[in-house]
Amino acid sequence: MLREVGHDGKVLAGGQSLIPVLNMRLAQPAHLVDINGISGLASVEVSDTAVRVGALVRHAALEREASARHTLPLLSQALGNVAHPAIRNRGTTVGSIAHADAAGEMPAVAVLTAAVIEAVSASGTREIAAADFFQGPLETTLAEDELIVAIRFGTFPAGTRTAFLESARRQGDYALAGVAAALTVADGVVGRALASFVSVTDVPDILDLTEAVRGQEPGGIDWSVVDDLVQGHVSPEADIHATADYRRALVGELTRRAFARTAAPEVSA
Amino acid sequence: MTTRQLGAPIRRREDPRLLTGNGRYLDDLGAGALHAAFVRSTSAHARIVDIDITDAWEVEGVEAIYTYEDLEGPMAQPLPVLIPHPALTHARTGYALVNGEVNHVGEPVVMVVARDRYLAEDAAARIRVDYEALPVVVGVEAARSASVLVHDDAPGNVAAHLVQEVGDVEAALAAAPHTLTIPLTIERSACMPMEGKGVLARWDRDEQSMRMWSSTQTSTGVRAAVAARLELPLARIHCIAPDVGGGFGVKIVHPWAEELLVPWAARALGRDVKWTEDRREHFISSAHERAQLQEVTVGFDDDGVVLGLDVKVWHDNGAYTPYGIIVPIITSTQLLGPYKPGAYRCEFWSLYTNTVIVTPYRGAGRPQGVFAMERTMDAIAAHLGKDRADVREANFILPEEMPYDHGLMFQDGRPLKYDSGDFPASLAKLKALVGWDDFTAYRKQAEAAGRKVGLGIGCYVEGTGVGPYEAGHVQVETSGRVNVATGLTTQGQGHETAFAQIVADELGVRIEDVHVTTGDTRRMGYAVGTFASRAAVMSGNAIAFAAKAVREKALRIAADALEANPDDLEIEDGVISVKGAPGTSISLSSVAVLSNPLRYAFDEAAKAATQFAGTFDPDKPPVADGEEPGLEGKGVYSPTQATFANGMHAAIVETDPVTAEITILRYCVIHDCGVMINPLIVEGQVHGGVAQGVGGALYERMAYDESGQLLNASFMDFLMPYASEVPHVETDHLETPSPLNPLGIKGAGEAGCIPVSAVIASAIEDAEGFPILSMPISPSELWELRRQHATKGQS
Fold this sequence. Notes:
Number of strands of chain B: 29
CATH topology of the largest domain in chain A: Uridine Diphospho-n-acetylenolpyruvylglucosamine Reductase, domain 3
Shape of chain B: globular
Shape of chain A: globular
Strand order of the largest sheet of chain A: 3-4-9-5-6
Helix content of chain A: 25-40%
Number of domains of chain B: 3
CATH architecture of the largest domain in chain A: 2-Layer Sandwich
Order of helices and strands of chain A: HEHEEEHHHHHHEEHEEEEEEEHHH
Oligomer: heterodimer
Mean pLDDT of chain A: 93
Mean pLDDT of chain B: 96
């Protein structure tokens, strides 16, 4: 069906981004392809290497899924920041990644977890690495006739702790800036430190901060050492809610706090 | 005696209906009606060159398309200037549909009527309007500089210029030991009721009569306006305000263009026509408020006592002035709050801009005035190194000085004369509630933990219950049902409960038997409207008078029936009995039967009122001289002046030392609205007001770009606070009864929001150590301010 109408159609899953756009007449697709009736898309499968989330899994369901939370805590850490409970009850995690809003939380999580996007079309199945998926604001490499049936979020190596922090003008709004952080500790010292960002980069990508802190004991790190790296990496824009300089400073601070949280002994992965 | 209802914190009787989806709002009415949609101007200032509607007619289901060319007679005239004022020398209003020149984005240019709203909008989207752009005025500075004019014939963009002065300000300032000049800015916000505007009209061709429903704050006002513009006899038109989902001021403006066009189209088409405003329309074509630039010059002595106060206000009134200059008048008078200003001069310029019109929004100019005065009080305290509460107290009007006449004219054209209030007592309560004297210790503790906290304060006085009048009608049916009607409207304030409480007490009936109708011209043709925190004061007292009249009539009839003296009778739970002899009694429902002598008995109870029942004295007329049939009565309340409520708020805020995020840790309110009819409702009003105040202080603004486009015309980008942003509100009340009305009440509707911007600015200033002169303030702005002050400190 997407092959027939894909050029002038939109896939409807949770509708939490699409319906407002239709409401405001910002898009007028000729066809809505409602996938809510397709069976088999609403499951969460957890293995040692990945959490596989079907296209119809609602944010709220994934947030509550105990095994996913245990295997990949970053999912629920981030999902708690996705809009409001009412939106999380309808909106799908896959849908928000397909929407590819750089102000969305889950695209940032997708890249940090090296997620794999499973896209299906009449010609077969294609797997796309998250790093290759996001092209620009609201732009992806997904073809018109492709449907994402699931996304596999990769798990982190043993000894990894994660944190997700963002700052929004109001609880649940699009963040002025946000960060997902993953710190891997081996033999008591930092082996890897990765971050991805919300609202301050054109497309979500990974900033590897390992070199700044490699080999240090996590509890003793002054995380302001990553500040220049973070502020150099992001490219925030000014809007009516905040200046670019403020966002840059904000994301720097959020990153320091997020890593400080991953390094704090009481936080368990 | 039955428990007294007045003063009882009973739950609102309307809530089960309203909170379970059983309210009947405008859009719930008129199934089958045609729907209107509007093409609205996309340009902020332009001449219309051409309107091409050809393509729109191709949309199936379109019934009519109207432009200004289709309007005739009074419909083609400019909309009325509702409140003329001698100082409003250059009043301008728009038209029901744009006549040639548009003056802000959102003005209605074309009206499309179709089978449903989707089709109407599809058709509207096909209409092409060609504009010849004119230069645009956005913001007070641009208006004041007047390098571009909004209206060619309004020089300087000045709609009105008004000076009020008491005493010799220049001499007072010259003689004052200390003077300060403070520039201040307040940005735009808006009412944003949950339900936007809406109109439904039904023309009865057979009766040649109109029935219309509007989500309005004044159904009598809309009725009169529509009668005039449609040239209908008043008797042939009725207007009903159904359940209304909030107003906050924007719906007191009338007639909105749509309130004229919808009934006009209904008559032309002979079909029901409905229009429901969507949120974007509400943003760009209703009303905003608040934006002002101010300059305060104050002279004071070593104790902080104000000797002279000179205030200049540049007020952004938007593109037109349909509601006159009420807002800046209120700013310039209510600015004084609980203080004696010494000599006082306030001068304001009400200025045109190519943006949405400015009309009263809850608080109506007071938040700006209080901001000016309270920032000034804090500045005096900072200058003298004195405690901010002490400086305020040094300037208070004292209870023994009441009534206190400021020598100024208030918004109702009457003297600004405070009737009551005990400001020192209110302040003492506030200091105790917030822990004013313990804050230094608290701050030390917080600072030791690397936190920044600040304490803020703000005081205000609010003239409420302005005239000219409201009327009430109370009628007892033979079933014992008590019908109460008053003409002003309800937008969720709890009138069904509060007015019933008054009647239950005054009449001596169970509250369950009392049924309140508001805003329906079929039930009450004379009314002013719901605004200015006036409903409880005005209609509450009017209804109390009406209930008293009914009570007296009931006692007269009962006295005849019981062969007793009316003075010996009492009414309790709808039963009239002789005091001390409860066996000798008659029900109010039976009195209602007797009050209306009958020829025909239609049920068992009615038999008592018929001619052969032997009830009536054959030597007297069945309806006594001077009486009317029926157990009903009217009351009117028309006060000589407003009654003045007051309040004092304090807040503790925390500002993040790095991210400058602002958190309200505590918010404390002392509120004095005289006698409370229902403390629960008053509490709710205060909470709601504070919520809106927090919005105005920290979140909301109208982000216009330089071309006059509103960039944040949705709830995604206009940041109305959620429950998560509104602090827990701690309240305490003082009840200084108003001497002006029998119930001793004052208005409470606007109170909560009035001082919030002042209080939050005061608290942030206290936390940061540099002055906060502009509100609202965001973390980004606070962060930039910190950077500026840090740079200043270094240079």
